[in-house]
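Weekly sync, protein design subgroup
Attendees: M.S., D.O., the rotation student, P.L. (late)

Item 1: inverse folding check
M.S. brought a backbone from last month's batch and wanted to see whether the design step gives back something sensible before we order anything. D.O. pointed out we never logged the input encoding, so this time it goes straight into the notes. Structure tokens as presented (1200 positions):
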């Protein structure tokens, strides 16, 4: 036979093919099921694992399966379950995942050996009977399928759900570059992208490929085989591939966008707005009433800066569609409408709600749901309103949620939580209404309602669910009354508690009294504050009078010292100076007597505080306190405020007397000091010496201050623990050198000791000393403030590579990134935009990316902590957490880092569309979180601290950021073709970010930035007339003349800075070779020149072209554009010449100059005792390399 065998082979091949396709179809179907029901899939997988573990246990107990192998399988399934901890996100490099794969193979191998091994011989009366101890093939196959392979196979199929997970805190575990920022500064592709997660939110991700990218494993395998078959068949000529046949089915699935999950998938596939808009327009032609596509269209309209009123109309169109009841879709629309509303009225400080139409949409959705689902719906609305701070809508959601609980059987704690959450919502809504025009009456009604609800809970019987039962409830009550300025009413209620609360009030009487005083101070009710403080003090005095052994006065001084401070503050406001002194003198006499003999620290500090208020002499008091407490670490902080009273110019005698006493008087018991006591005593003496000498020396030392400071420097450097971590001697030595440098730099140029070229050698000495002290801290670099100080000083000298080496030692918690990073990262774009290469190098972009990523994670974690769900809202902590959230969201640090990244990208000629953009909410109530107390301060408590000496070019303030957006960012967006719309970002940033009373301080731009500002104003004028306001050509008259003149002046200034190749100067007299001001001067000018080059291109394209009819064309002189281009190129070459001249100078004489300048003068001689010549030589070599890297960065900037 010939034909029948061939038919057999063909049938076998077709059968195998059909079986393969059936398996592939099943995999696809299961993958889709898992994608759409990830929560259910996770539950089923857990129950499946529990079931298999139970089967293993039964097999051991009943069928006597081997215990060892069964335990292996049970442990394996426990490890399989660990893969579900972030389900459906699976990281393929996770050790648990890899271990699971190994255990699958291990289990199969050992169980296969177990079933393959011959069983032990057993006796049977019938020799041909089947041995019942030997499992059949069916039983073995079933065991392998259910107990060995079922769970791994289910996990394998479920991996495909990972690509469809919504952004959340768990999604940072995803494979690839996740939002855990595996690559520094890079965020996950699906995190905060502009197309789906938020308008103006975080970094957009890269567009994924159409197939096989980030797909689940099951899909990837089947899709890969399908595409290989299609491509191979096409190459061999068997067929021509039809796109619909072998293209990835995800495209077809995305086209539908008929569910929230599919919408999110499509948004991840189209992260860029312009591509996404094209996709949405095509999809809407097929399904014009698809609510998910219409919502995405509204989102894209906001991203493309279209008219916000039209966006609001598009959202209303979505509400009208059937099927627009998905709570996630409604929350998405809520955010879009909130952003559109803010854009409609940029000057509006807040919006309380989004109107009746929005509420009706949520109510319509609620009608289609059951009771439990309605609770979840209102929780979702509350969360959306909470995020947008629309407190009227939040109150509405809470009320609706509470209504759903009325007819439900829920625990009493749930009803109480809902009641107090409603109080919180009413209070927040009232506060917001009071800020809106015409909202006074409504806010007063809501304030009254919040207090009435609180009184209802306060007066309720103990068996009522909403009744106050603990001190937590009373604290919340106090916060609400104080925020309304109703402290008098609150105290009256607490003085007359209901019967059910008398025991609670009596138990916490001291706590409630402290709250009364604190709340009176916070609400600035000064008369009430005075009466409460006096009552507390009189009570303590009465107890002491009744019982001589009573410690009431001591407890008040030691544990509640704020009472004394608050009383003095209230007296200053409520009373005249003489009347206040009489009251304090009487208290002083009755509480402490005429002459306090006690040595106790708390008593003496309060005694001295009161005597300072009545302006009594404190010299003897300071001596007494020093004599008894000089060995306490807190001694300097305690005594500083009193020593300052003696250090004015008019009391030089008292200051000198005290200084002499500190320096020469023998402390009683000094011979018995331990080593630690003696060290602490010496440290306190050095701090007080610096306070007395340095803080007011300029007014009393009659020109001898530098010599006196050098003497203090000598003493500090001779201290035994000078090199120890946290030693104040090291800080004092650095501060003295900085103060001397500050004095030299601000002397009159006519009498300047270095002629017309100020030298930074004192700054170099301070910087190298800081570098050396950090190097001496060999035990885990414990002194982190000193490392941060060293990093900042190196940046002052323009030594970025060395600075970031020091900055690497300031490892801090995520929360401190907001407070500390600006000391290093502000203006990094104008000093080291290109970072440094080689060993120990750094990337400015990566450092900024790390900071931004950390701040975004902190903000996200805080948001999730505040509002995980309406039923878990921490109502008593919510106001404080809201303040923290506002500090994170509107952090000045975040604005600084975002500005720096954009400036770096433009200097490098890189696109900025992948960089973060901040929405309008981020510019409201911007908070300066920079910690000015991070560096130890031993100067006057009335001064601003050492920061101005440490960082002369201060951290940019809000006024500087706002003006920067108006000056350079708006025109740069147009010139670099980053936008095609007329959205003037500078104008709305100014409206939103500027406080109602205006900026209290001027912007703190550097001199170089102020110089460049003039040219930026001219560039802005050209851009406005060229692209947006064609009828304002009259604005060009001054610009046409002034711009070439300013460019010429820049060129002349830069040519003067060029260093000669030969100079007959001693190494210690060499002029400054590296300083951040020099780099800032170069980069600010290069920014301008690059913008001018772009402007020339735009003018040729839009204005002066032969076919152009632009009105601006007639206003520009004939060769004006060519002249600007020519002058721009000349200026660019002049800057490069300056950079090359300094590079040559540093390579030839840099190291010798550094070593000589560090050893220069009296200060250099003093430093010989703490830094060896080998140390100086090593640091000098490091500084030369760092300086060369900095100057070579200037040469990397291209004009085009």
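Designed sequence read out in the meeting:
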């Amino acid at each position: 036979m010939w034909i029948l065998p061939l038919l057999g082979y063909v049938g076998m091949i077709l059968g195998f093919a059909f079986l393969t396709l059936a398996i592939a179809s099943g995999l696809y179907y299961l993958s889709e099921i898992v994608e759409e029901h990830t929560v259910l899939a996770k539950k089923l997988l857990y129950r499946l694992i529990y079931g298999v573990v139970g089967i293993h246990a039964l097999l051991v107990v009943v069928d006597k399966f081997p215990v060892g192998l069964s335990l292996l399988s049970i442990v394996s399934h426990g490890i399989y379950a660990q893969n579900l901890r972030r389900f459906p996100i699976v990281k393929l490099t996770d050790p648990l995942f890899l271990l699971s794969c190994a255990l699958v193979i291990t289990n199969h191998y050992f169980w296969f050996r177990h079933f393959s091994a011959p069983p032990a011989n057993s006796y049977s009366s019938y020799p041909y009977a089947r041995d019942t101890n030997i499992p059949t093939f069916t039983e073995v196959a079933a065991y392998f399928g259910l107990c060995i392979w079922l769970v791994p196979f289910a996990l394998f199929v479920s991996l495909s759900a990972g690509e469809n997970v919504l952004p959340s805190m768990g999604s940072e575990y995803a494979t690839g570059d996740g939002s855990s920022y595996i690559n520094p500064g890079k965020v996950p592709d699906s995190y905060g992208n502009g197309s789906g997660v938020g308008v103006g939110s975080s970094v957009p991700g890269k567009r994924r490929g159409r197939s096989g990218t980030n797909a689940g494993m099951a899909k990837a395998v089947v899709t890969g085989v399908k595409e290989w078959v299609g491509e191979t068949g096409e190459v061999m000529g068997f067929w021509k591939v039809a796109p619909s046949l072998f293209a990835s089915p995800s495209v077809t699935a995305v086209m539908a966008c008929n569910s929230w999950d599919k919408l999110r998938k499509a948004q991840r596939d189209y992260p860029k707005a312009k591509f996404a808009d094209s996709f949405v327009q095509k999809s809407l032609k097929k399904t014009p009433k698809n609510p998910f596509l219409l919502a995405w269209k509204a989102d894209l309209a906001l991203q493309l800066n279209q008219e916000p009123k039209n966006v609001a109309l598009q959202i209303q169109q979505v509400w009208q569609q059937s099927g627009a009841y998905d709570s996630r879709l409604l929350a998405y629309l809520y955010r879009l409408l909130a952003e559109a509303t803010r854009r409609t009225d940029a000057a509006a400080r807040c919006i309380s709600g989004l109107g009746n139409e929005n509420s009706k949409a949520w109510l319509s959705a609620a009608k289609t749901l059951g009771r439990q689902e309605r609770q979840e719906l209102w929780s979702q609305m509350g969360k959306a309103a909470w995020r947008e701070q629309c407190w009227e809508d939040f109150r509405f959601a809470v009320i609706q949620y509470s209504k759903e609980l009325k007819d439900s059987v829920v625990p009493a704690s749930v009803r109480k939580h809902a009641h107090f959450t409603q109080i919180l919502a009413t209070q927040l809504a009232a506060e917001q209404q009071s800020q809106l025009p015409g909202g006074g009456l409504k806010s007063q009604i809501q304030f009254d309602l919040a207090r009435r609800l609180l009184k209802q809970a306060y007066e309720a019987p103990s068996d009522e669910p909403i009744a106050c039962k603990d001190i937590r409830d009373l604290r919340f009550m106090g916060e609400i009354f104080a925020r309304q300025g109703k402290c008098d009413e609150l105290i009256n209620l607490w003085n007359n508690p209901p019967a059910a609360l008398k025991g609670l009030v009596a138990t916490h009487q001291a706590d409630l009294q402290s709250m009364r005083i604190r709340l009176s101070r916070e609400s600035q009710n000064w008369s009430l504050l005075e009466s409460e403080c006096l009552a507390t003090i009189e009570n303590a005095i009465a107890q002491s009078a009744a019982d001589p052994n009573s410690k009431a006065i001591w407890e008040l001084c030691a544990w509640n010292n704020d009472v004394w401070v608050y009383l003095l503050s209230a007296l200053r406001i409520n009373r005249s100076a003489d009347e206040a002194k009489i009251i304090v003198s009487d208290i002083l006499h009755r509480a402490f007597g005429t002459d306090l003999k006690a040595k106790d620290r708390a008593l003496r500090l309060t005694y001295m505080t009161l005597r300072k208020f009545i302006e009594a002499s404190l010299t003897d008091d300071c001596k007494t306190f020093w004599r008894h407490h000089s060995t306490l670490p807190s001694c300097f902080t305690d005594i500083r405020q009193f020593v300052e009273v003696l250090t004015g110019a008019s009391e030089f005698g008292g200051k000198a007397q005290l200084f002499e006493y500190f320096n020469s008087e023998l402390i009683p018991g000094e011979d018995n000091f331990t080593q630690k006591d003696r060290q602490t005593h010496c440290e306190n003496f050095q701090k007080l010496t610096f306070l007395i000498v340095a803080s007011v020396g300029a007014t009393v030392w009659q020109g001898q201050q530098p010599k006196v400071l050098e003497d203090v420097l000598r003493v500090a450097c001779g201290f035994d623990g000078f090199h120890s971590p946290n030693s104040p001697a090291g800080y004092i030595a650095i501060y003295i050198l900085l103060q001397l440098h500050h004095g030299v730099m601000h002397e009159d140029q006519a009498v300047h000791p270095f002629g017309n070229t100020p030298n930074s050698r004192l700054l170099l000495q301070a910087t190298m000393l800081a570098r050396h002290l950090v190097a001496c801290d060999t035990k885990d670099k414990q002194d982190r403030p000193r490392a941060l100080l060293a990093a900042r000083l190196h940046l002052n000298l323009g030594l970025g590579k060395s600075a970031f080496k020091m900055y690497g030692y300031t490892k801090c918690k995520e929360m401190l990134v907001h407070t500390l990073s600006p000391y290093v990262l502000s203006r990094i774009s104008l000093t080291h935009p290109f970072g440094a290469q080689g060993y120990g190098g750094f990337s400015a972009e990566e450092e900024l990316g790390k900071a931004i990523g950390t701040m975004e994670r902190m903000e996200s974690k805080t948001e999730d902590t505040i509002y995980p769900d309406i039923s878990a809202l921490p109502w008593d902590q919510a106001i404080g957490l809201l303040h923290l959230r506002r500090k994170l969201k509107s952090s000045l640090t975040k604005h600084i880092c975002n500005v720096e990244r954009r400036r770096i990208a433009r200097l490098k000629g890189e696109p900025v569309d992948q960089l973060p953009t901040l929405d309008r909410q981020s510019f409201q109530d911007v908070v300066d979180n920079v910690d000015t107390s991070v560096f130890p301060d031993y100067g006057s408590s009335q001064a601003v601290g050492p920061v101005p000496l440490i960082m002369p070019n201060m951290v940019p303030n809000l006024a500087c950021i706002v003006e920067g957006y108006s000056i350079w960012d708006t025109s740069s967006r147009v010139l670099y073709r980053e936008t095609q719309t007329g959205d003037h970002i500078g104008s709305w940033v100014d409206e939103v970010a500027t406080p109602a009373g205006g900026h209290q301080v001027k912007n703190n731009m550097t001199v170089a930035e102020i110089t460049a500002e003039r040219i930026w104003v001219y560039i802005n004028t050209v851009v406005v007339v060229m692209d947006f306001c064609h009828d304002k050509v009259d604005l060009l008259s001054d610009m046409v003349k002034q711009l070439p003149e300013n460019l010429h002046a820049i060129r002349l200034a830069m040519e003067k800075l060029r260093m000669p190749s030969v100079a007959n100067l001693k190494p210690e007299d060499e002029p400054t070779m590296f300083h951040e001001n020099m780099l800032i001067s170069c980069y600010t000018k290069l920014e301008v020149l690059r913008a001018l080059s772009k402007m020339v291109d735009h003018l040729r394209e839009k204005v002066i072209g032969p076919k152009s009819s632009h009105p601006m064309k007639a206003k520009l002189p004939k060769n004006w554009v060519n002249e600007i281009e020519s002058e721009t190129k000349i200026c660019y070459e002049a800057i490069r010449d300056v950079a090359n001249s300094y590079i040559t100078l540093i390579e030839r004489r840099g190291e010798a100059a550094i070593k000589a300048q560090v050893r220069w003068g009296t200060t250099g001689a003093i430093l010989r005792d703490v830094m060896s010549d080998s140390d100086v030589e090593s640091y000098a070599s490091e500084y030369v390399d760092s300086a060369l890297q900095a100057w070579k960065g200037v040469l990397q900037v291209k004009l085009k």
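Discussion: Residues 815-952 form one domain. The first helix runs from residue 3 to 36.
Action: P.L. to compare against the previous round before Friday.
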